[in-house]
Amino acid sequence: MVSEKKKESVLAGFKAFLMRGNVVDLAVAVVIGAAFTNIVNAVVKGVIGPLVGAIGTKNLDAYTSCLKGPCGVDAKGEPIGINIMWGTVLNAALTFLITAAVVYFLMVLPMSKYLATMEARRKAKEGVQETMEISELEVLKEIRDALVAQRGGGSGPAGGQAPGRDTTL
Q1: What are the DSSP calls for the chain, one per residue?
Q2: Burial (Cβ within 10 Å: 0-12, 13-18, ≥19) of residue 43
Q3: What number is the average pLDDT over the span 56-63?
Q4: What angle do the packed helices 86-103 and 21-43 form, to 10 degrees?
């Protein structure tokens, strides 16, 4: 019996975990990230590769250094010797930099500017509301003072008030 209750609570906990919004958001982010990776890889292969190829070869994977020779490829297409494939590392580094730049300039920077604009609008709106509240309070005080002065004059807000009546707002 104890194991059934424990099993039910584990399954209930797992169900609650899956139903939380964070899991769905994370799944969407992974799918979009995978699609975005394809775009970045295409940019590296189609744009950056040829630009680097203007200096050397178009395929960055072709840039290698021989650690222990003789280096090359045998008749079967298998590498001979010990190659350091620094072109592959360069390709991955360029892909990372392009991905980071695109994410920053197309997502982070515009979102930061948007949030800053919204915060400035909120503060400006809040400042206008405070000013309105202060000016309304001052107008109400002036009205109170004028009514007190009309009643019978005393000086100041408490001047001619009847006993037991509070004129403060």
Answers
A1: -HHHHHHHHHHHHHHHHHHSHHHHHHHHHHHHHHHHHHHHHHHIIIIIHHHHHTTS-S-GGG--EEEEEEEEE-TTS-EEEEEE-HHHHHHHHHHHHHHHHHHIIIIIHHHHHHHHHHHHHHHHHHHHHHHHHHHHHHHHHHHHHHHHHHHH--SSTTTTPPTT-----
A2: middle
A3: 73
A4: 120
> Average pLDDT for residues 46-61, to the nearest whole number?
74
CA distances from 164 to 97, 115, 167 (A): 77, 53, 10
Q: Give yes or no for residue 91 having a pLDDT over 70.
A: yes
Q: Which token pair is 115? A: 């949030």
CA angle 9, 11, 17 (to 5 degrees): 100
